[in-house]
Amino acid sequence: QVQLVESGGGLVQTGGSLRLSCAASGRTFSSYTMAWFRQAPGKEREIVGTIASNGYRIYAESVRGRFTISRDDAKNTVHLQMNSLKPEDTAVYYCASKADYDSHYDYWGQGTQVTVSS
Prior knowledge:
The protein contains no helices and eleven strands. By secondary structure, the protein is mostly beta strands. The strands form two sheets. Strands 2, 4, 5, 6, 9, 10 and 11 form a seven-stranded mixed sheet that branches.
């Protein structure tokens, strides 16, 4: 059974930092693309960034330069380091995985809340 479990969310002030983690189990994720998505109240889910199995990263324009995705395949874990947080970063953050060659993310975590106060 494949599971993705996020942690590290919380309440932070504008300009602060948080580090989210996603622990994966049930399969070896070293050959999969991992991604972070977020969904704010009343808004559609949007992609934050991805990291492919070869380490190649893509970020949304809104977070580029502030957020960093990393992965530790030995621990089946992916992280999202979020710096210079803004109130508009407030959302539930989800990690997801897919095969590098797929367009569809087939496994999702339950989400972790990030709230940035102004």
